[in-house]
Amino acid sequence: MLCRASLGLVCDTGLSALMVAATRQDAQVLQLLIRSGADVNLTSAEGKNALWFAITAAQEEAAAARQHDQASSAWWSRDIAAMLLSNGAHVNAADHAGMTSLMLAASITSDFYATPLIELLCQHGARAELQDKTGETALMKAAATGPFTSATLLLQAGGCINTQDNAGCTALMHSLKALPSHVEQRLTAQGFTVDSMASHLLNQEADVSLQDIAGQSALHLAVKAHRCNSKIICLLATIASRKQLSLDMPDRQGAAALAYAVQTDFGADPQVIRHFLQLGASINHR
Do 40 and 87 touch, CB atoms closer than 8 A? Predict the structure, then answer.
């Protein structure tokens, strides 16, 4: 029989028995510990609770899982999280970095894992507008590495599409930034492209006029990133023009988007240059 007095103690890894069970996705042991009085909201030294560890385990499984067994594993992960939530786990609890379980779920790159978890967390009151210590929201994390189904769910849950983080970046800007090559390859294999996410956010009225602390807009970032093809760059330029925004808007270094488009390390795209000029970009602007 389990001793109630011992359930709150942490092992030599700094985790409680419940946290370990959540990490291992062991539903039987998890249920036994909860029935014996384990505190579902006990946190580690980093401020992480059992729910946080359950979502992290799902995130790691999603990165390693093969396509044929993802669906069943994903619902198993959801059931583990549901068990903790139904027993009082705080859905909006954040670790010392301000990271919530919803932010973790939004970072998952697989629809099979992310969708059921995000839906579950939102049903239990997860707040999509919360920001971590860097100012990032769950939507920003989804925009950077997740399928756009995650972004749709987060917007429906109250996530603000034009919130800016501490660096001034919006979800749209995060979708345009470069990723580590191994993450890029995994997303490509799953059919995810930066163009699909950026287009989706633009359809949801993402503001193209906003600038980060370096003075760069989404258009600046798009022409600098090898992830973006000419289609999404031209779309951004067209939207900016329709909103009567100057395509010559300089960043903090005084450079306009056209200047970056010409000097890119990946080779200037004549189609993009032509489109900028047709929209009235100054050929003599720095």
Answer: yes
197 assigned to some structural domain: yes
89's tokens: 């786990």
Residue 261's domain comprises 219-286
Cβ-Cβ contacts under 8 Å for 150 (sequence gap 6 or more) = 105, 106, 108, 111, 114, 115, 118, 142
Which pTM does this prediction carry? 0.87
pLDDT in tens, 186-237: 555 555 555 678 888 998 899 999 999 999 999 999 888 765 678 888 989 9
Q: Residue type for 123, please?
A: Q
What is the number of domains present in the chain? 2
pLDDT digits (tens, 9 = 90+) for 9-41: 555 567 899 999 999 999 999 999 999 999 999
The answer on 182 and 83 residing in a single domain is: yes
Q: Is 213 part of any domain?
A: no
Q: What is the 3-state secondary structure (H, E, C) of 51-118?
A: HHHHHHHHHHHHHHCCHHHHHHHHHHHHHHHHHHHHCCCCCCCECCCCCEHHHHHHCCCCHHHHHHHH
Residues 225 and 193 in one domain: no
* Alpha-carbon gap, residue 40 to 37, rounded angstroms: 9
% the chain with pLDDT above 70 = 82
Nearest CA among 112, 182, 98 for reference residue 141: 98
